[in-house]
């Protein structure tokens, strides 16, 4: 049975598009690694594969967990096998703070982008705290200028949400639309169809490099910065949770560690 069959099962079970894309990609990589059908791969071989991904490929904590979840589900749905992969979940998540950049640096990156299309993509991602998948999944009709909202559909957890649309962003999008005339998706590739997430991250990194921002900049950096800047401005943490689409307030609470208004206004004794 092919990966395509696995995708069909996940579609019928109403998994979100992002989850389906991630899980099918993980399964394809595993098939390429083993060079044989996965039903002929035993648990010992799977354990060696995990060791390879963690120690050789240096995958992140979250991706390691995602590999285990995807392969466990694949074996269950395709072969009715209950493979015990939970113990391969990383035991402790690294306690890292999110990378955040200042508002002026966000502006520098936008200004350093090549054209109005790239500028609009970066500006929209930051202005609404969008995940990269949410940004490239947006269709023209999801921008409601009469209500001044953005309709994010089938996001993480298969949830829709409504976000406020900035007046300045709307102006940028109108200029972009006039020049590029997208057909269905708000941002489309050179040959039409949906823009790719890898292409967006590539253009973002290039713009950040030209802007001389000496940090590792990804689409999630823009999202982290959006949340942190809202918090520093006094926005209620539960409002930020809703805007970001977090199911748990605990996920949103991480931003309180990088943006504590009381601490940010403390003057160092050195300045005296």
From TrEMBL:
<keyword id="KW-0238">DNA-binding</keyword>
<feature type="domain" description="Tyr recombinase">
    <location>
        <begin position="96"/>
        <end position="268"/>
    </location>
</feature>
<protein>
    <submittedName>
        <fullName>Site-specific recombinase XerD</fullName>
    </submittedName>
</protein>
<dbReference type="InterPro" id="IPR044068">
    <property type="entry name" value="CB"/>
</dbReference>
<dbReference type="InterPro" id="IPR013762">
    <property type="entry name" value="Integrase-like_cat_sf"/>
</dbReference>
<keyword id="KW-0233">DNA recombination</keyword>
<dbReference type="InterPro" id="IPR011010">
    <property type="entry name" value="DNA_brk_join_enz"/>
</dbReference>
<comment type="similarity">
    <text>Belongs to the 'phage' integrase family.</text>
</comment>
<dbReference type="InterPro" id="IPR004107">
    <property type="entry name" value="Integrase_SAM-like_N"/>
</dbReference>
<dbReference type="InterPro" id="IPR050090">
    <property type="entry name" value="Tyrosine_recombinase_XerCD"/>
</dbReference>
<dbReference type="InterPro" id="IPR002104">
    <property type="entry name" value="Integrase_catalytic"/>
</dbReference>
<dbReference type="InterPro" id="IPR010998">
    <property type="entry name" value="Integrase_recombinase_N"/>
</dbReference>
<feature type="domain" description="Core-binding (CB)">
    <location>
        <begin position="1"/>
        <end position="79"/>
    </location>
</feature>
<keyword id="KW-0229">DNA integration</keyword>
<dbReference type="Pfam" id="PF13495">
    <property type="entry name" value="Phage_int_SAM_4"/>
</dbReference>
<dbReference type="Pfam" id="PF00589">
    <property type="entry name" value="Phage_integrase"/>
</dbReference>
């Amino acid at each position: 049975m092919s990966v395509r069959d696995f995708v069909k099962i996940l579609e019928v079970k109403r998994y979100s598009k992002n989850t389906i894309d991630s899980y099918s990609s993980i399964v394809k990589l595993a098939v390429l690694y083993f060079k044989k059908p996965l039903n002929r791969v035993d648990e010992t071989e799977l354990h060696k594969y995990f060791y390879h991904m963690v120690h050789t490929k240096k995958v992140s904590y979250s991706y390691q967990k995602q590999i285990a979840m995807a392969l466990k589900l694949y074996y269950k749905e395709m072969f009715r096998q209950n493979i015990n992969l939970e113990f391969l979940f990383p035991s402790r998540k690294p306690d890292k703070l999110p990378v955040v950049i200042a508002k002026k640096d966000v502006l520098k990156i936008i200004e350093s982008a090549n054209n109005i299309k790239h500028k609009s993509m970066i500006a929209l991602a930051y202005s609404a705290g969008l995940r990269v998948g949410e940004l490239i999944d947006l269709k023209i009709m999801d921008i409601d200028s009469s209500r001044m909202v953005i309709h994010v559909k089938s996001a993480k957890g298969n949830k829709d949400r409504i976000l406020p649309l900035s007046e300045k962003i709307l102006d940028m999008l109108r200029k972009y639309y006039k020049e590029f005339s997208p057909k269905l998706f708000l941002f489309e590739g050179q040959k039409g169809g949906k823009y790719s997430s890898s292409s967006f991250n590539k253009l973002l990194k290039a713009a950040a490099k030209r802007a001389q921002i000496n940090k590792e900049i990804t689409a999630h950096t823009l999202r982290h910065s959006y949340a942190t800047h809202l918090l520093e401005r006094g926005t209620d943490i539960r409002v930020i949770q809703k805007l970001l689409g977090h199911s748990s307030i605990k996920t949103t609470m991480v931003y309180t560690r990088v943006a504590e208004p009381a601490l940010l206004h403390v003057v160092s004794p050195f300045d005296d």
